[in-house]
Amino acid sequence: MAPAKKHRKPSLTPEAARTRTATSLLLTIVKEEYGRVPARLSRLLRDVVALYDGRWPAYEACEVSYHNCGHALDAAVTLTRMAAGWNRSGDQPKFPEDLFLCGIAAGLFHDAGYIKDKGDHDGRGGKYTFTHVQRGMEMAGRYLTESRWPARARELVPAMISLTDYRHEPEATALFHDPLELALAKMVPTADLVAQMADNKYLPRLTDLYVEFREVYEREGAEQIRQLGAPVYKSAQELKEGVLHFYEEFVAPRLERYGRMDRYLAVFFGNGHNPYHENIAANLSSHLLDLRGQWRRLGEVLRELGLASREQINAALAVQQQRAQAKEPNETLTTAIRKTLLPWINHQTSGRCLGEILMDMNAISSSALATGLLHQMVPDSLLEKMDRREIATLLRISVLLQNTRKGPWILRQALEMANHLLGCEASSILLAEPNKEEMLIALPTGPRSKMLQGQAITLDMGLASWVYRNGRPALTTNVLTDARFDKALDRRFDFETRSLLAVPLRINGLCIGVIEGVNKKDDNFTEHDMHILTMLANMISSALMSIIQEHLTR
Questions:
Q1: Quick one: which of 32, 84, 271, 486 could link to 461 by a disulfide (CB 3.0–4.6 Å)?
Q2: What three-state secondary structure class fits 13?
Q3: pLDDT tens-place string over residues 377-423
Q4: Helix H or strand E segment including 428
Q5: Superfamily in which the 15-286 domain is placed by CATH
Q6: Between these two residues, 234 and 367, which has the higher pLDDT value?
Q7: Phi, psi at 228, each rounded to 5°
């Protein structure tokens, strides 16, 4: 008798997985705080997800891409963590369970007003940009009444949502007389702002926000909107370029007005660690860069230059991945350079790069590959800004790195030259060991280099770790104002870090570590410095790749 076939459960979509993770987090935190999960909370989560999915008889599915279910859940999770941090701080009475649940409900419903009524096929919902708060208040009120929530909850939740109407902000103290109700109410607009600005995809998602704005512009008229005192953006790019101004002039003052309730996130996570603040700082820092990304992967460059199609590049990447998986398990990057540098990463690699595979497939010519590589490694915009001294120094470093096989001291000399070029006090190459959740300071230079050699930092703390995790460069001219900076190494080795510049170190598209510069003479690290250090990182990665290839062919 043939064995019965096993039916695999269909895999979750990214959206469904995100929803499941967020709802699980909410339920877990509430249980930790109150020892149980109230039935009406479980029902609330199911019902709100159903609302956004279009399974309520009175409403269409949510069609806007920015103020969607994911954002509602993010805001609710942020608020829940904030409120739990308040409970755990011990500085004041805990929120009663019923009040805690009201905050969650407000977080879930605060942007539900973008959802259209059943049968409304006019636009996607962006037309409600200026009225969505009132609509969300009404939707929440009706739901809580029909679901028989306590009478005070039916009053509190809409009032809390009203604080997210940033065009007509009500005075919170006039709405909430009880201190605990007032404190939790202030967390609702705080969570709304913090959740979206801390999103790892915040900047790219501003394109979705502009689509919503454009719909209301077309409906109401740009001039009419200007007369209301609201900004009118001409493009998504203009919206992105205004991020720093938006934070400084809009977000920061409101966080202050609401008592910086976001500080309780650090209590929730413990040890002063606040990933929300770290991500916000990162998003603002990365905004100083060219938003298209000065240093892009080769496939993207080749596609933009019209030298290879997306299909050709995807096919080549698939070949690259297959060859990487075919390697023997012991042929890892860690094995390949263990005799040359500190252990660094346990990840398989292919000996051939994307460009070579594209040539094998006759997708591009050698001249097209050369053009793409040059645009990737030396963008025209950077070349035009480099002075003679910078070009000469980088040329000397390039020649020096051709002798990397003589030993890691060659890389140290390259870093010393970079210190002189950038005016840095110190620099380091850090190599990741993901299995150990840490990065090793493989090659340090500067006054504490001997003590720092081989020291480890965790992958969840510090600016360099953030750069590795996100694969994006970062700089700070004052580490005391950057939430990503970790003071642990400074305290351990009696050193004062004032300014930092860090860029990813990649081999064949894989981020394997970070190169950082420390303490520029005037502490004024610039975007130009970042581009110079990124070019150096590209040169060093090529040198390291030659070491790996030599090891693999032995």
A1: 486
A2: coil
A3: 555 555 566 777 787 777 788 777 777 777 777 888 889 989 999 99
A4: strand 424-433
A5: 3'5'-cyclic nucleotide phosphodiesterase, catalytic domain (1.10.1300.10)
A6: 234
A7: -80, -5
Across 268-291, average pLDDT: 69
**Six-digit token string for 120:** 């409304």
Residue 501's H or E segment, with its range, is strand 500-507
pLDDT score recorded for residue 42:
96
DSSP for 406-419 reads G-THHHHHHHHHHH
pTM higher than 0.85: no
Confidence bin at 337 (pLDDT 50/70/90):
very low
Q: What are the residue boundaries of the structural domains of the chain, listed by start?
A: 15-286, 298-552
Q: How far apart are CA 443 and CA 156, in angstroms?
A: 57
Tokens 């028989």 belong to which residue? 148
Spatial CA neighbour of 548 closest among 338, 252, 375: 338
Handedness of CA 517, 519, 522, 523 (dihedral sign): positive
Q: What is the mean pLDDT of residues 150-170?
A: 93
21: Cβ contacts below 8 Å, ≥ 6 apart? none
Confidence check: pLDDT of 351 > 50? no
Per the CB < 8 A criterion, the answer to whether 257 and 74 are in contact is no
Q: How far is CA 279 from CA 84, 199, 331, 425, 513, in A?
A: 20, 7, 35, 27, 19
CA separation, residue 499 to residues 340, 451, 466, 479 (Å):
30, 20, 16, 6
Q: What is the pLDDT of residue 347?
A: 33
* Other Cβ atoms within 10 Å of 338 Cβ, number: 13
Output the CATH code of domain 298-552. 3.30.450.40
Helices 97-109/14-34 angle, 10° precision: 160
Nearest-angstrom CA–CA distance, 435 and 60? 46
Q: How far apart are CA 439 and CA 441, in angstroms?
A: 7
